[in-house]
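Homework help thread (please don't just give me the answer)

Our assignment gives two proteins as sequence + structure token strings and asks us to describe the second one. The first is just a warm-up. Here they are:
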Amino acid sequence: MGVLVCFLVGFGIGLLVVLYQILRHRVESRTKLRIGPRNPGTRGPCFLLLPGCWLAVKRRNLPAVQSALNLHHARCCSWVEGLTTADGLFISPPINGWILVVGGLLPNPWKDIDACFRFVLDLSRKVGKVQLFSADRATLRHAWAKAEGGRVMRAYAWAGRTVWVQGLPTRAEADLRMTCFDYFEPLPSGQTAALAANLNKIPLLAAKWGLDPARIHHHLMLKEQGVTGEPAHRY
């Protein structure tokens, strides 16, 4: 009888351990989908970590954006896979009428501002409204631009100095009190706080212009897949 009791107790403990591991695995699997923290002040969970550089394209047709970017070796993938891939580009499914493009092969405003300008201009000729955002907290470098139909409507980029100013500040920039310096304008003493404020306000500007990536909700990320691949031309 004592042996049977010991067997049953051991079996029960083993069963509990197995159940615990199964539940733990499910929780961890769900947690891995949370690529970023929840944004304060937003309703519902937000899972997308704000990328260092991204495009927002005003389109509902993913293949059209894929064709405009001339993506090679394209394949479908989940948001999680696309956003954690270091190389290539990830094109998201449409979110509220916008398509996001992120990845390490986007043109870098700090390396070649002319290439960045040509890229935004050319893409806007093909797909219409295009927005570019970039931020580097380590160096305080930042940029935002919007183009439509082959015309840059507004752009600003700071990389230790102002490297791109085009168009008049938008109402959204004014409302957010974003600070822009002119070409060759020296940075006044103590203005690093203004640069840091610009960085923090870029997601807010993106939201006012169209879509803040950090406010994409979990259920939207699970509904559809995007496309990943390599652009024909590297900037």
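The one we have to describe:
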Amino acid sequence: MPLIRVDALEGRSRKDVRCLLDAVHRAVLSAFKVPQRDRYQIYQEHPESHLIVEDTGLGIERTINIVIVTVFSKSRTQEAKQAFYSDLCQELKTNCDIDPSDVMVCVVSNTESDWSFGNGRAQFITGEL
């Protein structure tokens, strides 16, 4: 945990997708201080006509490299979230040549009772985690 969903335009190679997901994971490790194997990621591609990402009037130019990263997580501090935004953009630029202007992030907070990692159990509540 957290659960990461990445939405992007179709057309990336398997290698490019793996690079992107690895970069996202490194940012999660750095900003949220989770264990290495705390990795839950979904990558979804969309045709260009099915993904619209504008700029809320901020003047941000987008390209076909746009990625939307949704983070489902227990509550994180503002500092941790800001570190994640920064670390993520740095990782994606350095390793995947994705400009920060093509990175949009949304963090969705929830509670420990909202998670089951399998076997029909709520591991945060039962004390398994």
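TA reply:
I won't write it for you, but here's a hint about the kind of observation we're looking for: The first helix runs from residue 14 to 32.
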